[in-house]
Amino acid sequence: MGTRFKLVVGLGNPTAQYEKTRHNAGFWFVDEIAETYGAVFREDRRFQGLVAALEFGGGSVLLLKPMTFMNRSGQSVAALVRYYKITAEEMLVAHDELDFAPGVVRLKCGGGHGGHNGLRDLIDQLGTAGFWRIRIGIGHPGNRDEVVPYVLGNPGANERELICRAISRVTELFPAILRGELSAVTTRLHTDSQR
């Protein structure tokens, strides 16, 4: 049957310094997917990133963690999608979302970058915003001037647990996402966060 998606990108910053920061929620997601479904990341210099392959439904899904730093994420992604001839509609991007509280996660297609530097570069490099996103809530500091230190800061233990629980919910639903059951998944994620 194959899969709805051929590429799943997690956005984040490389190096140990950023590993536990809120801005790396996209990395946390693809790491959990790889661990849960048995894929192993390996460095691929052609794409300036870490790439893993996951077999699903008779097809292959690639996981990508750009190692270019957040504001140049699009360079890594664009190189890979051009090489494998993947369209924007076949791509799913996981990223941190200031507009949602920790514990909230949403699935969405298209839209702007909302000030997110990784998404901004992705849209610039691909020439389209027509890809699906997994938006992982990290909360907002309440003041625009505090956004940069906030996203590059580590969440507290309770906050981190809520974010990780949200990621685990999407991980459980990942086979349904790959099968293209997107409206059912969207409804389920919305319902879960209302509880």
Relevant terms:
single chain, 195 residues, alpha/beta, Rossmann fold, seven-stranded mixed beta sheet, 21% strand
Total domain modules: 1
Q: What's the architecture, going by CATH?
A: 3-Layer(aba) Sandwich
Taking the alpha carbons of the first and last residues, their distance comes to 34 Å
The CATH homologous superfamily corresponds to Peptidyl-tRNA hydrolase
> What is the CATH topology classification name?
Rossmann fold
Folded structure, characterized:
The protein is an alpha/beta fold. The chain has a single domain, classed as Peptidyl-tRNA hydrolase (Rossmann fold, 3-Layer(aba) Sandwich). The chain is 38% helix and 21% strand. It has six helices and seven strands. The chain has helices spanning 25-37, 73-84, 117-126, 147-151, 157-178, 182-194; strands at 7-10, 42-44, 49-56, 59-66, 91-97, 105-109, 132-137. Strands 2-3-4-1-5-7-6 form a seven-stranded mixed beta sheet, with helices on both faces.
Gist?
The protein is an alpha/beta fold and 195 residues long. The protein has helices spanning 25-37, 73-84, 117-126, 147-151, 157-178, 182-194, and strands at 7-10, 42-44, 49-56, 59-66, 91-97, 105-109, 132-137.
Layout of helices and strands, plus pairs?
Blueprint: E1 7-10, H1 25-37, E2 42-44, E3 49-56, E4 59-66, H2 73-84, E5 91-97, E6 105-109, H3 117-126, E7 132-137, H4 147-151, H5 157-178, H6 182-194
Parallel strand pairs: 1-4, 1-5, 5-7
Antiparallel strand pairs: 2-3, 3-4, 6-7
Helix pairs in contact: 1-5, 2-3, 5-6
